[in-house]
Write a structure and sequence with these properties.
globular
Length: 633
């Protein structure tokens, strides 16, 4: 008996699911003429999806048609439109004159693509610097994340708890903090530098400012993201397959190489892709540590916000960055290929995961221990820096003056008064994160499910549309939103909504990629079995697929919530006195040299985010596949 095809009639429940996600974003805006335009566009997209369904598009599935049409409209409004307005500056000068003839010359200029550093004569261009840094950061974070995931999922329960805590800490770290900790440790007058000079006579230097320092900070920061993606994939690897290899007398190394490794390749490729793009878009670490090593993100920022204020130059750099990211995405797709990575089918699975080969386990430990030591040391500096007078000048006199300055409380005529200078930015930031995180996760899950499970014309274009916003540095996104939404017909600048919308569509690709990575291991027979029982698309998604996507949900929620709190490069252009944000406040303190106050504020954010992340994991739980308990050895 063949499996029944997916249902083709209208699906009201799935329409409601998509409508709720969209209405939440629309209701954030003050009801103006601009809001009416957005709501009217969503209504037109809904009508278009009905017409497309009746015409036989999307296999006559109304749910998928509605999700694709409405998501495409929202992505067009809040991704393509602002980026397009920004990129026009590459061909138009400040007087409105077209510069098409000179655009190519500016794009291929030596300060972008110059490779003189290879011969040692001059510096390399910012594109070459960014490619080198992003490649090293992507490889490093993926390698360390893979080692962490192997020890957490296959190394026994004794290691799992401590490794998970260490892996979460960098995720909940505000920007600038790791860079500041590295400067305090390894700077010319840093703690480690002084000890090395006193004990071994090693001369002080500024080696940390440049490629080594930025790379070190990025690997520490991006490893947890790779860990979250790869550990979720490892958890879904079917133990039955690994046990089958052992029954056939395969050695632990042979089973790992031929069974486990191939099944986690999509997650590893996604981890590298996100690490590469994160490195390209990173703004805080290069701003603090890059020195004379220029990269695209900071170059764009100074092209817009610096004394030169050259929007055309910033647009050229943005096009360069977009092309780089598209190239990495194409390489990733070619590496994964068309192979099948399904390991969870509709059959019961009660196998026991295979233990790690001895060599792999010791190799993973050798990688994890230095990373863990640096992480613990950095966070020790952060925690101590907030409760001493001035950690930067080694004045370790105990003091709470920094917390009093930022989070002071007093009693006034009306009762308790939040007198500290940081309270306003903290309350605004928590409100933004609480609204943006669930919206980001919902839209990412819908987009990832449609891309991974349904074939329709334009699917590749739709997938690229969901990822393109992650390819552009936050500095350009922020300026693009200012350019696009500061004038009619869509005028949202200065509102709470523009910050939320920027963060939702900026972080949505993580939810999409996490969902695609998880769904690559779930057999389509699960969908087909549900359809055979006459379940609608939305019921199949909610009752069959969604419970198995808990690792992807956790990854998306954690990433979107923490990045909504720690985002700086995009929102620094969108924050106002009324809607100030924590990262903008911290950036201001770093700019004027108040490192201790910035570290104190950051320690408060770390505690808040860590508590919220643990609550998210506790509330959602993990995907369980009926497996036996793993040995505690």
């Amino acid at each position: 008996m063949t499996a029944a095809p997916l249902r083709t009639q209208a699906d009201p429940l799935s329409w409601l699911l998509a409508g709720l996600a969209i209405a939440a974003g629309v209701l954030l805006m003050p009801w103006t003429q601009s809001s009416a335009y957005v709501a009217g566009g969503c209504a037109l997209a809904a009508v278009a999806s009905v017409l497309a369904t009746r015409a036989g598009a999307f296999k006559s599935d109304a749910a998928i048609s509605g999700v694709v049409c409405i998501l495409s409209l929202l992505l067009a409004i809040f991704v393509i439109y602002p980026i397009g307005r920004m990129l026009l500056a590459a061909f138009v000068d400040e007087r409105g004159n077209w510069l098409i003839q000179t655009a190519a010359a500016r794009f291929f200029s030596a300060d972008i693509w110059g490779a003189g550093c290879i011969t040692g004569s001059v510096r390399c261009g910012v594109a070459i610097n960014s490619i080198a840094l992003a490649t090293l950061a992507g490889v490093g974070s993926t390698l360390f994340g893979f080692a962490l995931a192997l020890l957490a999922e296959r190394g026994g329960r004794r290691l799992r708890g401590s490794l998970r805590v260490l892996s979460i800490l960098p995720v909940v770290t505000p920007p600038f903090v790791i860079g500041l900790a590295i400067i305090i440790l390894f700077g010319r007058t840093g703690i480690v530098t002084q000890l090395m000079s006193d004990w071994f006579g090693i001369a002080r230097s500024r080696w940390i400012y440049g490629l080594p320092g930025v790379l070190l900070a990025q690997v520490v920061c991006f490893t947890p993201l790779a860990f979250l993606l790869i550990s979720g994939a490892l958890r879904l690897v079917s133990p039955t397959l690994e046990e089958a290899g052992q029954v056939l007398r395969g050695s632990p190394w042979h089973v790992f190489r031929t069974v486990t490794w191939p099944l986690v390749r999509p997650a590893i490729a996604n981890a590298f892709l996100l690490g590469f793009v994160e490195s390209l878009a990173d703004f805080a670490n290069p701003l603090v540590l890059s020195g004379n090593f220029e990269v695209l993100s900071t170059k764009i920022f100074f092209a817009i916000a610096g004394a030169q204020h050259d929007a055309s130059r910033a647009a050229i750099l943005a096009v360069t960055l977009l092309l780089l990211t598209v190239g990495v995405f194409a390489l990733q797709q070619r590496w994964i290929g068309k192979a099948s990575y399904t390991s969870v089918s509709g059959k019961g699975d009660s196998g026991l995961p295979a233990t790690l080969p001895t060599g792999v386990k010791w190799g993973a430990l050798a990688l994890v221990l230095p990373w863990a030591a640096l992480t613990v040391l950095s966070y020790g500096i952060i925690l101590i820096g907030g409760v001493v007078k001035d950690i930067g000048r080694f004045d370790l006199t105990p003091s709470l003056q920094h917390f009093e300055t930022g989070f002071g409380l007093s009693w006034g005529a009306g009762g308790l008064v939040f007198s500290g200078s940081a309270w306003n930015s903290l309350f605004t930031t928590l409100g933004v994160a609480a609204v943006a995180a669930p919206l980001t996760t919902a839209l990412g899950l819908l987009g990832g499910y449609v891309v991974s499970r349904h074939a329709f014309k334009g699917r590749r274009a739709f997938e690229f549309l969901t990822m393109v916003n992650f390819a552009v540095p936050g500095t350009v996104i922020g300026v693009a939103y200012i350019v696009a939404f500061n004038v009619p017909p869509l005028e949202f600048t200065g509102t709470f909504a523009i910050i939320v919308l920027c963060l939702v569509f900026r972080n949505m690709p993580v939810g999409v990629r996490a969902t695609v990575s998880a769904l690559s291991q779930l057999d389509r027979s699960l969908d087909e079995a549900s359809a055979t029982l006459r379940a609608s698309t939305s019921r199949t998604f909610a009752r069959v697929i969604l419970p198995l996507l808990r690792p992807a949900i956790i990854a998306s929620l954690v990433f979107s919530f923490t990045h909504a709190i720690t985002a700086v490069s995009a929102v620094i252009f969108l924050a106002t006195a009324q809607h100030n944000l924590s990262t903008v406040y911290i950036a201001g303190r770093v700019e004027v040299g108040e490192y201790a106050l910035a570290i104190a504020y950051s320690s408060v954010l770390i505690v808040i985010m860590l508590a919220c992340v643990l609550l998210i994991q506790r509330f959602i739980g993990n995907a369980e596949l009926g497996r036996r308990a793993v040995s505690t050895a």
